Each structure stands twice: as structure tokens, then as C-alpha cells.
């Protein structure tokens, strides 16, 4: 039985993880869980999974829950932020927190030598070489939960790196794959939140529509598999059945296929180094089945080019890309920025430069804060300009 600490239990990946735990209760136990501020289901989870502790990161939500459930809180609630959960003995962490907030959890788990099933791609994107340096010699393993990276992990495991030519990530292309860029300024958050193949949290869904998610994933793949960006390709594959491919030097290409179901990579990451036995995502070849692949339109979607630029530039530029995108996506969802504004904001922050490498956690925090401030300034300046034009 493996004891698991689940961060981000109330999110989309968190829900899929609980479903894996429910169906494989003989293999994994929920030792503890953390949320930011969603506490509505905590009582149910205590009844079903009997975790030993819960952490509620947001102080006001923590105190509100303590007041509402004094007996449960006295027994189970940890004082302190989400990372407090890491003091419990456990075999594995699953980090399903969204955004930069996930990095601290991964860093602290690595410091304790724990294996991390990593859905939070921002840990690698923002932590970069600072995280990788700490991983070396820690005894921890980063086990990818992102479906493309889990697929690559499976395709590459036990394979001689000298036989590999290129890594290929697939992208659904998002809901605006065919929409001319001229129509993009009228895209609403509701339209952008309608992903054609996956059901995910709001930030990653918008990132899938802009392809910034794929940009983050190119960065994640380059760091996780130590492959330079020029040997990582992206292919649009609208059916989301093939998650990644590995082109070998002999000319052949290996592909990993499964129907879109995040429980498969979650189960694989929880089971590693054993092989998962669950059957999640099994393709039904008894039905008519078609697949297509096409190149990315990099003119309409500059996101991948910006991510590649960050990988070439190094330092904290990938962290800045992530921070600018987080701020821009939040502004778009709140109706303060139009869809093309997400690309413009990220580009403006990257154009500002000044991304020297981080030597400490405080450097990472400061770089993240600076990029967020630059992004917020860009957004308010552009909304000020748009208002003036509308008033004129
Ligand atoms: N969804 C997918 O299918 C998918 C696929 C591949 C990779 N990923 C990656 O997985 C991560 C999670 O994505 P998601 O779609 O599951 O996001 P989501 O539905 O928005 O859920 C995010 C979770 O993170 C929690 N959280 C946020 N800040 C926190 C903090 N400071 N401390 C503790 N918990 C915190 C949230 O808690 P509250 O509810 O309390 O706010 C929530 O449980 C992202 O990095 C995403 O890129 C997701």
C-alpha cells in the first residue's frame, strides 16, 4: 500500500486522482490532502478516504472551516500553508496545484527526498535549473502526469538515448484552430473555456486555446528529458488519441495512444516503478476511428515561438512567460483583456528582458513578482488605450 499526499484535491486533476484512489483502494491510500480554499467536499472526503490530515492554504478559508467544523478541525486541520502536509510520512506526493503556487510544494517535496507525481508543469517551467539542481542527488523522482510527458516517459523508459532523434508532443489545437486571427478579438471566455477534447481547470483550458499550454509543455519536456528545444516538435492532432511520439534515428516513429482520460497518466505515475493495471483510456478499435496530424500555425499562435525563445534565453525567462500568462489569463477570464491581449502581454513582458538566473527561492519569488507587475502594467495601459479609442 502506497501512502499519498494529494495537493490540489479540489481541482480537475485532484478529482481524477480521487477517482483512481477510489478504484484502486488496495494499492493506494490517501494520507493527506491540501486545497487552496475549496472546502465544500472535505467532510465527504474524510468519510470516504480517512486521510490523516488536511491543509487549507488560504488563511481566511482555513479559519472559516475551523469555525464551521471545530471537531474535525481539532483532529485533522494543519496550521500553516499547504506545504505543512509534507511533514506527514508518505511514499509519494501528487502535485495537482495550478500555477506558480505549485513550485514551493515540489521544491519542499524534493528536499525531503519524496517522489513527486507532477501535474503542476509550472514547477519545471518556473523552477528550471534551480529545481533540477536540487533534484540531483536528492533521491526524488519527478514522475510526469501531463499526458504528453507521461507518454514520452513510457516511450523512453529503458531506451538508449543515442537511438533517439526527436520528441514530438501533440496538441488538440484548441477551439480556435480554424478561426482566422482577425476574429480573435471577439472571443469570449465562455467560448475559450469550451475545450474540444479535454475537461480541465480554467487556466490550462485557456492555455490550450492560445497554445501557451503547449509552449509550457515544450519547456517541461526539454527540462524533464534533457533534450534541446530544437529536437522537440509539436503536431496538431485534434482527436487527442496519440499523446506523444518518439522519432528514432533508424527512421521509425513510436507513438503512445489512449483515449483522453487523465486517470491513465495519474495511475501510471502513482504506480511507478510498477506498471499500472487499470485499463483507463483503452481505445475502442471496434468503432470507426480516424486520426489526423497537421503542423502548428506559428503565425496565428506565437505562443510556441515565445516558449522556445525562453528556452534559448535561459535564466528566469520561462518563469516570466508563465507569470505573464497567468496574469493575462486571469484578466481575460475577468473580461479585462481580449484574447489577442494574452499574446501581447506575454510578449511585452519577455521584451522587457532582465531574466538573470535564480540562485535562491527569494530570487525566484522576486522574478515572478516582477513579471506579474510588468504584465499588470501592460494590461492596464492597453485597457486605458482601448477606452480612449472607444471614447474618441
Ligand atoms: N486538468 C487537466 O486535465 C490537466 C492535464 C495536464 C496537466 N494539468 C496541470 O495540472 C495542474 C492542475 O490543473 P487543474 O486543471 O486540475 O487545475 P484546477 O482544476 O484549477 O485545480 C487547481 C487546484 O489547485 C489548488 N490550489 C491552487 N493554489 C493552491 C495553493 N496555494 N495551495 C494548495 N492548493 C492550491 C486548487 O484549490 P482550490 O480549489 O481550493 O482553489 C485546486 O484544487 C496544472 O498545473 C495543470 O497545468 C492539468
Structural class: alpha/beta
Q: Return Rg in Å.
A: 21 Å
Structural domain count: 3
SSE order in H/E notation? EHEHEHHEHEHEHEHHHEEEHEHHHH
Strand order, largest beta sheet: 3-2-1-4-5-6
Shape: globular
Helical proportion, percent range: 40-55%
Number of DSSP helices?
Answer: 15
The main sheet comes to: 6 strands, parallel
Mean pLDDT: 96
Q: Uncertain segments of ≥5 residues (pLDDT<50)?
A: none
Mind sketching the topology for me?
Elements: E1 2-7, H1 12-23, E2 28-35, H2 42-49, E3 53-56, H3 59-68, H4 70-76, E4 92-95, H5 101-111, E5 115-118, H6 122-135, E6 142-144, H7 147-156, E7 164-171, H8 189-192, H9 202-210, H10 212-225, E8 232-236, E9 242-248, E10 253-257, H11 263-271, E11 294-295, H12 303-313, H13 317-333, H14 339-351, H15 361-391
Parallel strand pairs: 1-2, 1-4, 2-3, 4-5, 5-6, 7-8
Antiparallel strand pairs: 7-9, 8-11, 9-10
Bound molecules: NADP nicotinamide-adenine-dinucleotide phosphate (NAP).
NADP nicotinamide-adenine-dinucleotide phosphate is lined by residues 7-14, 34-38, 57, 82, 96-98, 101, 119-122, 146, 198, 200-202, 204, 262.
Describe the structure.
The strands form two sheets. The chain has a six-stranded parallel β-sheet with strand order 3-2-1-4-5-6, sandwiched between helices. Strands 10-9-7-8-11 form a five-stranded mixed β-sheet, with helices on one face. It has 392 residues and is an alpha/beta fold. It is built from 15 helices and eleven strands. 46% of the residues lie in helices and 14% in strands. Strand 4, helix 5 (101-111) and strand 5 (115-118) form a beta-alpha-beta unit. It has three domains: 2-144, Rossmann fold (3-Layer(aba) Sandwich), CATH 3.40.50; 146-301, no CATH class; 314-392, Rna Polymerase Sigma Factor, Chain: A, CATH 1.10.1740. The mean pLDDT is 96. The site of NADP nicotinamide-adenine-dinucleotide phosphate has 30 residues, from helix 1, strand 2 and helix 9.
